[in-house]
Backbone:
């Protein structure tokens, strides 16, 4: 996806548009920008002071060996001192302003983008995109920050330096100015060519880095597979291949940098030779002073540096603009599920019924996932949803909790269209409990508080008691302060589910949608989880995506999905009696899986 | 307080010494290229000084004489132009050597050490891998290797700069001793400010870098747990959590910016002030006849060309602490001891092997108790054995021992009477295949993921895919067997991944197949079909001996023999019916699902 984004980049036209849009998005960055740029312009003056002082000094007598007194050049020296001072102060002030403005603005942009990501349903739909989204709020913003503070400063100062130097040169002699620019012209003309070559070279570097990281992960993440299949040599070949491709790409990029950098120096030498030769010829004819000719050598130096770095500056600017565009595109992506906010309707208090009326859902340009589902769930009914992978049962659950909006039809809770209910209100009444109990790298207390903001320890303990998990909790080494580790990995898969259940009990919703865990758990924890779940579901309306026979058997009602359609609806006993039905088939395989036949009661 | 400062100095010295040793090591490793790049950089340094000398020479021999005589001194002028060009070309040569060859040295060092580190990963035993977090090992091979050699990026330039400073002082001494004193004042000042700058800056840059890592961790975690965040309505709280770190990063970056804002203008102003000083003193020297105007011009020009490169010394000093830390981490991998040694035997004959364990004992590093304790087990060839046990009973450890991912602390494990350590790595890998619960897929095609580059025909691959019920979804992939998996390829579900791992094991026609809960993510119905096909194959005499860690009754149902593991030993063994009749512990475990079911109803 990055490749196509780069191809689509038209840096000249779109670059400025992105810059404008980026600034418009972050008021902190825009504020006082004019003054900062003015300071930047002022801070370029200092560089031209030295050539002017040299010219004045030489022409004041140093050049022709006449007696020169310091007093003769004192005014110009004083002025130079003041200008150098002003330049330094302006440069300091400009940088401080720029750093504060850009960091404040980018920090706001980061936070806004982060918040927006949580509003996008892709986040819950496509796990593969998550890494990309993380880079939008981290490395992409870092890239913009580096650009503004390093390359951006360099661009402004370089440009200012070139303009001021050219102006001073033109003031002294237009002929010599022409000579200087003729020497740099070929390089300036080829800048764009070099910049695009370099940009492509860096693209290759980035691509090879990604590929290299993937293969380097093999001997680490896949260590046991490599060992078990004795494929060390194959793995090393792949790793070496990745490393070498990256080495080659870096070498190629580096050679481009070296060549452009060196050629600017050659152009500088050419300009010096040209300026001195032409200067003397013109000067002897009476057109120029000796000091002016020498001052030009100093002025040429002011142009060499900026031209030397121009290729890299252009390349990095392009990358930063691409990053900026990616962040802007993210923030500009409309949230597909919109929070009505304060304008929202309230849900009725107490128990909740749910209903879907002619609901369909399809991903953009994708196949239909759910088609024309019509169902009513009375309050306090316990529903099991079954179906094979891809039958649409998970989508059904997400539509019920408004993690997604249907393409057609309406979903109601307690008779209210849920798209008109504010998120805050909706989340108070409805809860989706995901398949695996995802925990945050924090204490047990902090993880439980996700269920109820600011809950007291007493409330937490009550919730633990409510779901009858006190005995498990008492076995924890540090009680509520127990650290659960990254993604909760200090706990077993089963214990993570227990925490998720306590968390759900704290949230105390009227309507629960559960995705039953499939991963195997040791029997004791399994038993605890089942009991806790039982306590949790008691007195609430619930919809469970069932992976187990017992869940379906014990439900008040079973909904069977197949190919995105609700194909069967009834109690377990009713459905199992329908021969050749989807449920009967699923049930048969469950029976085979869950029992040996001999101990079936 | 003073004690702390002292400590700091000692550790600074140590860091500096280790940094120098590291530079020495890098130069020795890339002797030829490192020497060339340093020579190139010295050439660059000398030519930079020569540039100023040419201007001074031209002032006294070409420019002034021409102006004084009112006639172009053509010879001297041509010489000037030629010298400017020659110096520019030589300097360009130096720049290319410094930048390109220096860059190649840097990239080669990184590539070399990445190869060494990954080779070490492949050689070190699994017990070592288990002791080190995956993330740490990945960063050892990537970021740490880069950090270790980061000092080599600016190193050639810094060495060239030292040569340049020596040459500059020399050139000044020839021109005028008094002016040399000015140089001796300004150059060390530039040097000192750069050192001070880097000392002040680098810990703050390091802190900002660390905060970037924290920010990325928060974003990763929050997006990974998006479903929990969203369903509990905690988006705002998550945003606040992210914002807190983002603001810390913002402040850290501004802190860095403030330091740069002070030093960058200072480092720019200092040489300019130096030029003013040179001019003031130079005017007096010329008036007294002690120096020629050209000498003053030369020294002034020197100041302007030398000031920027001097920064390279600061860059090197700034990189040293980072390089030393990175190198320390890389070294800890390279110096790690241990490797798995394999024998040279093979197992005669073909077909299913007999598996025997005698008095096998295993204890995790640092654990108080054995996981497996005097374990005896005899599995007859061509049988299907289910291993049952509660969490922590050592089931997974047992599977690791069978492929020698770890070796037992005591006891023998034999295949057809051959001790495992006597087997060659290839013989072991071709005899036994383990399929773990967590699947690792390579960033490669479906075909490669199954064959692992072994000489296996597509027909055999499809055969294996059919057995594990994976032929359907693989055929449906856009490029079939050539479909790319991983980061930039197709995303597979957990069940699909497990089936590919099964196919990978089966296609090698192992003589012992070990399944460690390897079908946990597969649809129950599909799982049944796979296991039955396997069991039938084995029963038919052309399949492997199968050992399967079982959580589900359906799996147990397919076994000829069930082994109950408890307290690291075989607690009971027999058919399911026998164990149900004789072992209460067995009943407890296997009936836990039934108990859970009763608790629900």
Residues:
């Amino acid at each position: 996806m990055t490749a196509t984004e780069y191809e689509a980049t038209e840096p000249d036209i779109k670059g400025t548009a992105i810059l404008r849009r980026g600034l418009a998005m972050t008021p902190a960055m825009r504020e006082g920008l004019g003054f900062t740029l003015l300071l930047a312009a002022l801070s370029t003056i200092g560089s031209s002071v030295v050539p002017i002082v040299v010219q004045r000094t030489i022409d004041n007598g140093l050049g022709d060996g006449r007696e020169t007194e310091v007093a003769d050049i004192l005014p110009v020296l004083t002025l130079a001192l003041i200008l150098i001072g002003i330049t330094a102060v302006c440069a300091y002030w400009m940088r401080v302003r720029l750093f504060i403005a850009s960091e404040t603005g980018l920090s706001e942009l980061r936070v806004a983008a982060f918040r927006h990501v949580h509003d996008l349903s892709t986040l819950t739909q496509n796990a593969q995109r998550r890494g990309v989204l993380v880079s939008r709020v981290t490395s992409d913003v870092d890239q913009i920050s580096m650009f503004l503070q390093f390359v951006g400063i360099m661009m402004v100062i370089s440009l200012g330096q070139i303009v001021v130097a050219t102006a001073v040169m033109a003031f002294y002699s237009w002929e010599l100015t022409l000579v200087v620019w003729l020497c740099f012209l070929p390089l300036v003309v080829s800048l764009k060519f070099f910049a695009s070559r370099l940009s492509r070279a860096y693209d290759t570097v980035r691509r090879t880095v990604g590929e290299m990281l993937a293969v380097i992960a093999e001997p680490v993440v896949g260590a046991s597979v490599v060992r078990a299949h004795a494929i060390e040599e194959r793995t090393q070949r792949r790793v070496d291949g990745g490393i070498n491709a990256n080495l080659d790409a870096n070498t190629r990029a580096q050679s481009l940098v070296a060549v452009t950098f060196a050629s600017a120096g050659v152009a500088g030498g050419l300009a010096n030779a040209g300026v001195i030769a032409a200067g003397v010829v013109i000067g002897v004819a009476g057109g120029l002073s000796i000091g002016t000719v020498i001052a030009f050598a100093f002025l040429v130096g002011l142009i060499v540096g900026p031209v030397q770095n121009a290729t890299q500056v252009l390349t990095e600017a392009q990358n930063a603009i691409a990053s900026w565009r990616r962040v802007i595109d993210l923030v500009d992506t409309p949230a597909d599920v919109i929070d009505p906010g304060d304008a929202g309707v309230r849900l009725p208090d107490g128990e909740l019924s749910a209903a879907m009326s002619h609901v369909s859902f399809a991903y953009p340009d994708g196949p239909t996932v759910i088609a024309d589902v019509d169902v009513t769930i009375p309050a306090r009914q316990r529903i099991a949803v079954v179906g094979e992978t891809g039958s649409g049962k998970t989508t059904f659950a997400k539509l019920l909790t408004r993690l997604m909006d249907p393409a057609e039809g309406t979903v109601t809770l307690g008779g209210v269209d849920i798209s008109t209910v504010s998120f805050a209100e909706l989340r108070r009444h409805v809860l989706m409990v995901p398949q695996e109990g995802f925990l945050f790298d924090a204490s047990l207390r902090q993880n439980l508080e996700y269920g109820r903001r600011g809950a007291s320890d007493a409330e937490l303990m009550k919730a633990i008691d409510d779901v009858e998990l006190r005995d498990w909790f008492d076995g924890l080494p540090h009680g509520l302060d127990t650290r659960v580790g990254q993604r909760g990995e200090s706990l077993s898969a089963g214990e993570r589910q227990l925490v998720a259940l306590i968390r759900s009990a704290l949230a105390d919703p009227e309507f629960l949608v559960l995705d039953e865990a499939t991963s195997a758990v040791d029997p004791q924890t399994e038993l605890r989880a089942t009991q806790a779940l039982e306590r949790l579901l008691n007195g609430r309306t619930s919809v469970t995506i069932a992976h187990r026979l017992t869940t379906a058997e014990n439900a008040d009602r079973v909904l069977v999905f197949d190919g995105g359609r609700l194909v069967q609806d009834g109690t377990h006993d009713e459905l199992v009696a329908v021969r050749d039905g989807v449920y009967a088939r699923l049930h048969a395989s469950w029976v085979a899986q869950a029992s040996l036949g001999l101990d079936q009661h | 307080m003073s004690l702390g400062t002292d400590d700091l100095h000692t550790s600074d010295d140590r860091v500096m010494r280790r940094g120098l040793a590291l530079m020495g090591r890098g130069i020795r490793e890339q002797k030829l290229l490192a020497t060339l790049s340093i020579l190139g950089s010295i050439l660059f340094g000398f030519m930079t000084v020569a540039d100023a000398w040419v201007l001074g020479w031209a002032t006294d021999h070409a420019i002034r004489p021409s102006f004084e005589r009112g006639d172009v001194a053509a010879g001297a002028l041509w010489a000037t132009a030629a010298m400017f060009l020659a110096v520019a070309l030589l300097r360009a040569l130096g720049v290319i050597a410094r930048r390109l060859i220096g860059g190649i040295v840097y990239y080669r060092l990184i590539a070399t050490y990445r190869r060494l580190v990954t080779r070490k990963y492949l050689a070190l035993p699994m017990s070592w891998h288990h002791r080190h977090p995956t993330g740490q090992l990945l960063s050892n091979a990537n970021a740490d290797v880069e950090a270790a050699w980061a000092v080599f990026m600016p190193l050639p330039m810094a060495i060239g700069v030292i040569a340049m400073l020596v040459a500059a002082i020399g050139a000044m001494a020839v021109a005028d001793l008094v002016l040399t004193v000015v140089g001796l004042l300004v150059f060390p000042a530039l040097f000192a400010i750069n050192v001070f700058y880097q000392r002040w800056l680098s810990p703050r840059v390091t802190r900002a870098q660390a905060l970037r890592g924290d920010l990325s961790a928060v974003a990763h975690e929050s997006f990974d747990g998006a479903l929990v965040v969203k369903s509990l309505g905690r988006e705002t709280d998550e945003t606040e959590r992210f914002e807190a770190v983002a603001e810390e990063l913002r402040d850290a970056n501004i802190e860095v910016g403030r330091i740069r804002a002070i030093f960058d203008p200072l480092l720019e102003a200092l040489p300019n002030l130096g030029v003013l000083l040179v001019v003031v003193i130079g005017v007096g020297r010329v008036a007294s006849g002690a120096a020629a105007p050209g000498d003053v011009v030369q020294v002034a020009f020197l100041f302007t060309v030398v000031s920027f490169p001097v920064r390279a010394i600061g860059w090197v000093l700034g990189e040293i602490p980072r390089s030393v830390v990175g190198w320390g981490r890389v070294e800890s991998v390279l110096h790690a001891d241990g490797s798995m040694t394999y024998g040279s035997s093979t197992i005669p004959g073909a077909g299913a092997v007999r598996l025997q364990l005698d008095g096998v004992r295993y204890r995790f590093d640092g654990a108080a108790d054995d996981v497996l304790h005097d374990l005896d087990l005899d599995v007859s060839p061509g049988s299907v054995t289910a291993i049952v046990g509660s969490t922590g009973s050592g089931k997974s450890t047992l599977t690791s021992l069978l492929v020698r991912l770890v070796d037992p602390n005591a006891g023998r494990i034999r295949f057809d009477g051959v001790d495992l350590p006597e087997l060659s790595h290839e013989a072991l890998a071709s005899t036994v295949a383990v399929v773990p619960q967590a699947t690792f897929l390579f960033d490669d095609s479906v075909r490669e993921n199954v064959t692992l580059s072994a000489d296996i025909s597509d027909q055999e691959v499809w055969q294996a895919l059919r057995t594990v019920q994976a032929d359907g979804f693989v055929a449906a992939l856009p490029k079939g067997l050539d479909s790319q998996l991983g980061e930039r390829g197709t995303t597979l579900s957990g069940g699909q991944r497990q089936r590919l791992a099964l196919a990978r094991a089966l296609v090698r026609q192992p003589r012992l197949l070990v399944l460690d809960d390897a079908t946990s993510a597969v649809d129950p119905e599909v799982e049944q079909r796979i296991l039955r096909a396997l069991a039938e194959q084995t029963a038919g005499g052309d399949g492997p001996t199968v050992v399967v860690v079982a959580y589900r009754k359906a799996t147990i149902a397919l076994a000829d023999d069930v082994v109950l593991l408890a307290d690291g030993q075989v607690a009971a063994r027999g058919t399911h019916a026998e164990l149900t009749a004789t072992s209460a512990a067995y009943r407890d475990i296997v009936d836990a699902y039934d108990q859970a079911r009763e608790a629900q109803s």
Summary: Confidence is low (pLDDT under 50) at residues 1-13, 596-601 of chain A. Chain A touches chain B through 175 residues (CB under 8 Å).
